[in-house]
Structure formats: structure tokens, C-alpha cells
Amino acid sequence: MINSSDFTRPVSELTAEAKRYLNLRIGLAGMVINKRMAEFTSQLISMLLLAGIFAMVMFMLSFAFVFWYGKNVGAYHEGFLIVSLLYTIIGVLIYKYKRQLLLDPLIKKLNEKHQLLDDSMDSDLPPAENLEMLNKQLEIRQLQIKYSELSMQKQLDDLGNALSPTRMMNSLLVSALTSSTMLMKSASLLLRLMKRKK
Fold this sequence. Notes:
The chain is mainly α. It has 2 domains: 4-163; 164-198. 87% of the residues lie in helices and 0% in strands. It has 6 helices and no strands. α1 (4-71) packs antiparallel against α2 (76-96), α1 (4-71) packs antiparallel against α3 (98-117) and α1 (4-71) runs antiparallel to α4. It starts with a helix and ends with a helix. The mean pLDDT is 76.
């Protein structure tokens, strides 16, 4: 009798690898989307903050210029200039540290939400907490996908070999020769033939 596992094993392995490959691709797509959303949102928030601060700076500078120009000497413009300088410094600091202040916390929050929404996928990677960690996870996921593609290619080759006509005939002959009922029938036939010759 033919051992059915000889034929179904490559198919089941290929199915499992295809499922793993699909899950890896979905995980990679989620990570890429999270990264792009985080970068876009961070850029948008940075621009909005800088635009608001710039508007305030311009407003304060305008008042300072008006008071200075109007009085030519006085304390009003100095106060406005100091406040404008303060807002300018704050704007520069926000722009310079936007990654630590905005991008990294946003990536962490998006990945936490992604982990909560996607409990079905067995993720072997912890949630990314900053941009470097997310980039490393993207590289790891791409390597896992490449490995999965190579593994599926090997399993497809194995499946082609297992289902080749020579392999199937070989399997049939081996199972026929190792089957006890076939051996008994062959022995019985051989004995009948030997008795007829006598």
C-alpha cells in the first residue's frame, strides 16, 4: 500500500510555509504603514507647531517693532523681543528634537495599537519604541520573508520531485514489495507455479 504521507507531506509543508510567508508579508506591510504614518504625522505636527510658533514670533516681533518705532526708547519693545526670542528658541528646540519628542512616542503608540489589533499573528518581534528599532525590525522582517521565499521554493522543488512519475513508480514498487499481503500473494503464486511444474 502507498504511504500517503509521502505525497501529502510536501503539500502540507508548502501550505504551512505559504501561510507563514503571508503572515510575514502582512506584518511587514503593517510595519511599513506604521512607519510612514508616524513620519507623516510627526512631520505634520512639527510643521503645525513651527507655523504656530512662527506666527506668534512674528506677532510679537511686530508689536515690538511698533512700540520701539513709536517710542524710540522704552521697556515695551524689550519685553516683546525677549518673548519673541524665547518662542524662537522653543521652536528651534522642537524642530531639533522632534524625533525624540514626537516621532519615537508616536511610533511606540502606533505599534502598541498594531499589537493590540493583531493578536492572530504570532509576532516574534517586540513592539518598536523608536525609529531605529522600527528600522531594525523592518530589516529582520525582510530577511525572514526572503528566507520564507527560499524555503517555499525548496518545498516546491521537493513537491515536484515527490510527484514525479519515476518517484511515484518507485514508491509504488517499494510499498508493493514491503506489503505483507503482497508478499503472501506473491509467495502463493510462486508456490502454485512451482507445483504445476512438478
